[in-house]
Amino acid sequence: MTLPVKQYPTAEAEEAARARALARDPATSVVQIRALAIRAQQGERRIAEALAANPATPLDLLATLIPLAPAAFCRNPIAPLIPLEQPDFLKRVPQPGIERMLRCPRAPQVFLDSILESNDSYAPSLQEAVSLHVSRYPSTGDDATEDWQFGIRRYWRHVTNRLDKTSPADALFEAAELGWLPASLLTGLDDPVVHTTYAGLMESARPHQARQMEEGAADPPLDTPGVRNARVFQFVGAAFHARMPPRRLREWVGHLETLDCAIAQSRYATPELLLQLAGSPYTTVRRAALRHRAIPPEGLEIAQRCALGQALSLRGPGRYSARSSFGISPGHLLLRFAASFAATGPQGRSLWHQFARSSFWQERLTAAVVIRQRLNGQPMRRRHQALLRLLAEDGNSLVRASARGRLRGENFTWEP
């Protein structure tokens, strides 16, 4: 191994160049490669890329280097031959690493065939991503569909047809009410919003119960799993009673989601209280407040800002996260796709860079369709054009087709 003839400004720079040359050299010993792999795992990206492309790197190290340098691994000449020596190699690679490898158009075909042929060894989302890889279209090697907009609409329609009970259906219906999604996309999905207007509770609430709530200093219980007892519904019934002063209603907000939803539907809720509820972390409360006839016009902006922040952060009101070891649920990806159209300013622009380099092809697709011109009508900035050019060479056919359509000046529209 010899270093190129070059003057290095510091001894550290010369040592780093020497390490990279060692990592690239097929003649480097396994002991040295394993020592360099430690540096790669500590964040030295160029060493990780050199090791991932080196045919002398042991297979167990290659499995750990794929998430760090997927494109370099795809250039490794021994990559297509690995299943001959180790048939279960791909199962040793974390799913995020496989997802990153699928971003590369040169992903080894033998691995893609292995994922598609296995019945239940890989997550359905991973098999779906493989089915859209550019190598699956040998006639063109390019786009999954001539009309990329039709392909996007068809994919999300397919997603809504198979959403399960864990999907954010309530948030998706809120997105449709806010104008982010076409309502026709959710026709096959049941709206989980509480259909009861609590009018029955208002009629059944006894007057002395309402007086007890008015005269006593008791506070409703905090919102904890399983809290659905008679005492909770006494507060719900009292929220609809004419003798309940708005002051007490304000004191009750934030204790219980069920109670907040009832207050948002009560005829005695004041406009100020409805504006507070429009910014609730709970989707059902926001939707109920927006339906109230007394809510001021600025309530829509408050609810939209709150819903937008939750959708783009993929977190609920402190209780759950849409992310898991298997990625992001399809329903949350659809919500993220729709919310990105409403994100403007620095928040939207920062998302473009995050999405364009995401392991999830749906987020890269989001970046491909929402990157837009500046608000003053000038062309998009060069760095945003560079993101589109990066996506135009993506390994996912739909992402690639969308980015190329955008570079031609076409914009995505939900309806045909």
For the biggest sheet, the summary is: 2 strands, antiparallel
Give the total of beta strands: 2
| Total count of domains | 3
Contiguous uncertain segments of 5+ residues: 199-208
Distance separating the two termini = 60 Å
Shape: elongated
**Structural category:** mainly alpha
Can you describe this structure?
The chain is mainly alpha-helical and 416 residues long. It has 3 domains: 11-131, no CATH class; 199-313, no CATH class; 326-407, no CATH class. The protein is built from 24 helices and 2 strands. The chain has a two-stranded antiparallel ribbon. Strand 1 and strand 2 (327-328) form a beta hairpin. Helix 18 packs antiparallel against helix 19 (298-313) and helix 20 (330-342) runs parallel beside helix 22. The relative contact order is 0.09.
Can you tag this structure with a few keywords?
416 residues, mainly alpha, 3 domains, two-stranded antiparallel sheet, 24 helices, elongated
Detail the topology: elements first, then pairings:
Elements: H1 11-24, H2 30-41, H3 45-52, H4 59-65, H5 70-75, H6 82-85, H7 95-101, H8 109-117, H9 124-131, H10 148-160, H11 169-177, H12 199-204, H13 207-215, H14 230-239, H15 246-252, H16 257-265, H17 271-278, H18 283-291, H19 298-313, E1 323-324, E2 327-328, H20 330-342, H21 345-356, H22 361-370, H23 382-391, H24 397-407
Antiparallel strand pairs: 1-2
Helix pairs in contact: 1-3, 2-3, 10-24, 11-20, 13-14, 14-16, 16-18, 17-18, 17-19, 18-19, 20-22, 21-22, 22-24, 23-24
